[in-house]
Amino acid sequence: MSRTKTGTPSLLRRTVAGLSAVGIALIGLVAMPSMAAAAPNAAIVVGAVAIAPVDAQATVGDRLTVSGSWDASAADPHAGDTFTIGLPPELAFPQAVPFPLLGSDDEGNSVVWGNCLTDPATSIATCELTDAVEATPELVQGAWQFEVKAANATTAEGVEFDLNGATVIVDLPGTGGIDDGIELPGEVSKSGVMNQDNWSMTWTVDIPGANMVGQNTVTLHDTLGAGHELCTPTGLKVETVRGSTVVNVTGLATTVPAAGATEFDVVLTAPTSGFDANVTYRATYQTCTPDGQIDPAGTTYENAAQVEGWGSAGAGVGEVRNLPWQQNLTKSGSVLGGADRNGKVAWTVTIPGDQLLGKDGFTMTEALGVGHQLCTDTISGLQVTERYGPSNRLQQNITSRLTATTVFSTAQGFQVRFDIDDEDLEFRASDYRYVITYTTCVTSTDLPAGGTGYTNRVDIDGQVAGTTASVPARSQGKSGQINTSAVTLDGVQHMPQTTLNWAVRIPGQMIEDIDGPLTLTDTFSASQMICEAGDPSGGTAARMNLKVEARDQIQNGGLSTVDLAADTEATVDGNVITFDIDPTDLPIPTGTSDGFSREYQYVITYTTCTASGGMDARGTEYSNTLTGSGINFTTTSTQSNSGSGTGQGVTRGSVSIDKILADTPGAEFVPDDAAFTVHVREIDPAGTTQNEYDLRVPLTGAPVSGLNARGTGWTVQLTEPTFPSIPGVTFGTPVFAPGAGLTVSQDGTVATASITPGTNVSVALTNEARLGSISLVKALGGPAAGLVDADRTYRVTAQIDTSALGAGFPSQPARTVDVVAGEPVVLADLPIGATVRFSEARPANDDRFTWGEPVFAPGSVTVTAAHAVTPATVTLTNTVSRTVGTFSIVKTVTGAQADNPAVPDAVTVTASWDQEGTPGSKTLTVPTDGTPVPLGEDLLIGTEVTLTETPLSDGSSIAWGAPTWSGTGVSVDGLSAVVAVGRTADATVTLENHAATSTAGISLLKGIAGEASTEVQPSTEFPVTATWVDEDGDEQSRDLTINALEPTPLGIDLPAGTVVTITEGARPDFDTVVWGSITISGSGVADAGDGSATVTVSDQQGAEALVTVVNEATWAPGSFSITKSIAGIAEGDAEVPESVTVTASWIDGDGERSEEIQVPTDGSPAVFPRELPHGTEVTLVETPSEASARFTWADPAWSGDRVTAAEDTTAVVTIGAADTAEVALVNTAVASLGELTITKSVTGEGASRSASTVFPVTVSWTDLLGESQTRDLDLTPGEPAVIDDLPLGTEVQVEEHAAALPDQIRWSGADWSSDADNVSVSTDAGSVRAVVTVTGEPGTTAELSLVNELTVAPALAVTGADAAAAWTLAGIASVAALLGAALITVRRPRRS
Fold first, then answer.
1. Confidence of residue 1366 (pLDDT cuts 50, 70, 90)
2. Which tens digits make up the pLDDT trace of 737-776?
3. How far, in Å, are 366, 409, 428 from residue 384 at the CA level?
4. What is the DSSP letter of 12?
């Protein structure tokens, strides 16, 4: 894909040139195009440029293929016209490569439409047209292709080509940019190396610049191990390193260490621009042994570096081991070249210092092998050097400080005694070593043969060492290479890549025994030929550029090169060249040779041409075999470059491929400029595949044709083996559609076109962009799983993370689904590569069930291509158990005697229950100090536990009142309590006993029990009437008021045996309390169960009778109301329902209950029509309202006192006492939004002059809130504009305004239309206004077309008034354009 900076975009289809060279056509490439006669034709359009491979990231050094098209059909082409393709600086031609623009004429004959040549020096490919273009110039066009090298790194997505004068940006492969291929380290590293002197070492610390960015300073702390310290000087150097680019930045080191330090800091201070993330900062320095001496062999030196504050990522440890010592006597030798001509051998003897330590001298005895002897200066030339360590850093020549005495000397050996002759000289221990050098002379007067060996043996005071020095081997063989520049042979100039140079090297020692001519035959492959003869011709040797030379066998040996061309005859027979070389007497060191001589090497060089006459296809091999006189050399050269092109001047006989993308949800993620690869096989009438290549077929635009015009009997087979890499989608099996002249395989993946000359077979190829899916399965576990309603729904939210698909990939909204246990739900249309994570609105715990945390397995899914075929499976498991509860019991003692020591420390309470038919009981000891005692049993919610206190005995001045029970879920059953187990975590049952002071006679005490007892103050007075019959038989009565604070005495002494009836009067009213049972108890009290009791006056003197009247206080029932409000949409909107349905459900003694409530949407409260017990939890569920074409409803929002909103969009309201809980419910309308693409085009004779005219358009609508919205945009023909956030299901008005048209151009109205099924367009013919309605799901895309017909009016004189009006309109248009720039909210279509 390309973007042109100047001129209009090319309309040519993008093709890939892949033709093999055709021999007859390449004859035109023998001679270089004559640029002097060439005529640049700027009207030739070069475009449709692509760089392959498109999906691979380019790295510096990579070979890339650049292809494109050329079109001269509108350029009046002539022979000699040229067009050029200029590379950007980031790309380069590896070599000069010629290639033709090949095609066929109307009779099927091969034709060269032009010849092209790439120029590495200028980075320009130049193509020159031939006279073939002049037959039908209006049809001349074609394609081209060549290889380039990625030369320079860049981060840009595209690079600038110069396409015959037009600057065009071409996308780079992959995600853009060219990587330099350099991988920078991510952590600090340290390394060291022992220097050659063996007592100093160099250390290197590499610090990643990326880790240093943002820091002002970076401190490197270094700690040396034992045995070394910083040298003098330290050699500290700081450099930035990236690949081979090294820059000295030692100046950044603001704190540096001193020589001799073993622990030190190096502080690097950031430059003004900060540290560079794209380099490595390398610090090097040297350490030495403290005394400058060489430590024993194998000594290890350690070094640790740490960048402060970086932790383990900033640590580096290095270790160095020193070099081995000289342990033994050694000897080496080499045969000398140059002026010595292999006639001398240089010898070196190395003696370890330990061998001479403590001696005053030593004796050297030398024995030579055959072939060499002492020279006249061998003994006098002996040199002795003292060297410390393996390097020559510390060494001295001590020859003059020794006395050398020759013991004996022969041609084959000698013995010399060396004695110290300097009182300051003494032999030192290893690793000092003593090196003796000298030479011997070869006995042969002729040049020795390569590989000849000379042995030598030395004895130093009885220690022996020997070695062999060999003459270097003589180079021989044959080599060849393709010429990368133009070559002139016999007066004919040949293009690069069309000739090959060959070189043969024969050592003289191989042929010195030949007396007559040397005859060699060279057999070359059929891919070569002897180059074309010139006119006039210089003969075979000139056509081959043949050279035969005798060159000195020894480099710089003193012999001059001799030209043997006059003594050589070359003849050619087919693909065999015969060389006859006469023996020639040549100068040699000893005089003159007798014919061929070993003192020389014989070199033959010559050139052949490609048999095609042009550049051959990549992989073509060129081989040569040279034989004769014991010589057999073979070599091969292979063409590794390529370049090709096509041309046409007639209607083609090929295929025309139209790419179609199926309308699937995945299609929206495929960019408009996506291109697909179709593989083409061109098969001749005999059934042989003659050509194969790939065509890049764009998703939108004109169909793409095959490269070659073929005739009757030819077939073209098409497949689509690969697909473009597009984030978010995978592609299904491609399908070719059958058609005229086209047969398709059964599975639709292979199409075969039968070619008819002069026409193209139309081919439609459909691809489906597929998305992935996940199957979500709900499972229940736990002991209560079987009790859960099988139809219960659970709300799951899927979050779709597309960050791995790149910043440009559109984010995906979360998906919410309701699932039922055991019924899989499939989430479809998930982008490939997205990661999906799930969460569940965990069901709320209630009196029946307690829910565990939801568990998803797996926890997340990355959608793959395989999931486009088979959904991934995710299992959601909820563990559910029956809800249980418990409570604690607290004992309190009140009354005047509460502090009496006789009050027991604890009381005994018996608990008993029946849980779903299983009885249970427990005895609890409850302290009287208020310490809670847990029941210690987890019981199902609603289980009734009866609590009974063991009665307390009166005494010690204490008169005990009846037990009074209170707390949540407490009801009274006589003197016992019945507790309904609830879910309150800290539920407490309070047991109160009133310890009153024993008083003779009858006293009455009030007890307030039950779950609502806290609503009644202990001081509340209750009326009681006491009645009895006196001794006269008359009925007597007395009215009393009693409370729970202190007993109230009857206040009258009655005879023993008198029966007193106690009757409670009207109890006080409390809004939140409903009075329950009345229990009257005490010693001698008989409770009638109707709110009265009798007590008999004791016959004991001073006896007391405490009567406790206990009232059970229960909570008053309550109710709730729901008030509904609507947000996000105008009040009274016709599509808002008048009411919604809310289902209320709760649990009572009869099980689960539910009832529907109709809630008005106008804000009027809907009151639940019944009262419910206090504490009842009512679950509220709204039945979703139907969505409109204009909007959807967001999840309901619940709020209010005692209202808890759940994640699953339900709510729970808890019923209060004697009140109506107010529940607020809000529904928000969410506008359904999509996008509309408006494409402007112009027709008519004025269209060409208005291609860049800007046409203003206004888009307006009324939103959900009733407010007007307007968007202004400018349309340019051929450039679609996209309006984001367009309301769906809404009438949108579009209106085109007057444009600033060129002179004489007039337009006659507008034509609004759309081919989409989900778009309705209402307009009058030619009207500039239209009403457009787009329907569909949120995110829907649609297209609208706007066409203007432009005409050309006759030129008219402009009057003053007309001119003023014109300027006024122009001013208005300018202002409108400025306003449009401020208001515009549209975007252009995205590119990948």
1. very low
2. 999 999 999 999 999 999 876 577 889 999 999 999 999 9
3. 15, 19, 14
4. P
Strand ranges across the sheet with 918-927: 918-927, 906-915, 944-949, 976-980, 970-973
Question: Both tokens of residue 947?
Answer: 């609590």
Alpha carbons 76 and 78: distance in angstroms, whole number: 7
**The pLDDT of residue 1370 is above 50:** no
Percent with pLDDT over 70 in the chain? 92
Among the listed residues 1349, 1380, 1390, 1379, the one whose alpha carbon sits nearest the alpha carbon of residue 1274: 1380
Give yes or no for residue 587 having a pLDDT over 50.
Answer: yes
CATH among 3.90.1210.10, 1.20.1070.10, 2.60.40.1140, 3.30.300.330 for 773-882: 2.60.40.1140
Q: Which of 514-523, 577-586, 994-1003 has the lowest mean pLDDT?
A: 994-1003
Q: What is the pLDDT of residues 1156-1193, one digit of tens each?
A: 999 999 999 999 999 999 999 999 999 998 888 999 99
Domain 999-1115 sits in CATH at: 2.60.40
Would you state the structure tokens that stand for residue 987, as one six-digit string? 């539920």
Residue 1276 in contact with residue 1254, Cβ under 8 Å?
yes
Domain at 199-321, CATH class: mainly beta
Burial (CB < 10 A; 0-12, 13-18, 19+), residue 1128, is: middle
Q: CA-CA distances (angstroms) from residue 1018 to 312, 895, 964, 1050?
A: 72, 11, 12, 20
Report pLDDT digits (tens) over 105-122: 666 667 888 999 999 999
- Rounded to an integer, what distance in angstroms lies between the CA atom of residue 193 and that of residue 207? 18
pLDDT at 18 over 60: no
Nearest 5°: phi and psi at 178?
Answer: -125, 120
1086 Cβ neighbours under 8 A, 6+ residues apart: 1093, 1094, 1095
CATH architecture label of 343-470: Sandwich (2.60)
Q: For the chain, give the mean pLDDT.
A: 88
Asked if 1-185+639-651 and 343-470 have one fold, the answer is yes
Tell me the mean pLDDT in the region 39-64.
90
What CATH class does 1-185+639-651 carry? mainly beta
- Residue 547 host element (H or E): strand 547-552
Q: How far apart are CA 301 and CA 289, in angstroms?
A: 10
Residue 36 has pLDDT above 80, yes or no: no
CATH code for the part of the protein at 1235-1324+1347-1387: 2.60.40
Give the residue extent of every domain in the chain: 1-185+639-651, 199-321, 343-470, 498-601+621-637, 773-882, 898-997, 999-1115, 1119-1231, 1235-1324+1347-1387
CATH number of the structural domain 1119-1231: 2.60.40
Would you state the torsion angle of the CA atoms of residues 766, 772, 776, 777, taken in this order, to the nearest 10 degrees?
Answer: 70
What are all long-range contacts of 1313-1318, with beta carbons under 8 Å and residues at least 24 apart? 1313/1344, 1313/1345, 1313/1347, 1314/1342, 1314/1343, 1314/1344, 1314/1345, 1315/1343, 1315/1345, 1316/1342, 1316/1343, 1318/1342
pLDDT, position 645: 65
In whole angstroms, give the CA distance from residue 279 to residue 209: 5
Detail the DSSP E strand segments found in 1043-1193: 1048-1049, 1059-1064, 1073-1081, 1085-1087, 1092-1096, 1104-1115, 1119-1127, 1139-1148, 1151-1160, 1166-1167, 1177-1182, 1191-1193
- How far CA 882 is from CA of 405, 781, 787, in Å, comes to 114, 12, 9
- State the pLDDT at residue 32: 41
Q: What is the pLDDT of residue 33?
A: 42
Q: Do residues 976 and 1086 make contact, with C-beta atoms less than 8 angstroms apart?
A: no
Q: How far is CA 116 from CA 38, 484, 975, 1232, in A?
A: 12, 15, 115, 57
- pLDDT single digits (tens) 615-664: 787 888 999 999 999 999 999 999 887 776 656 554 456 788 888 899 89
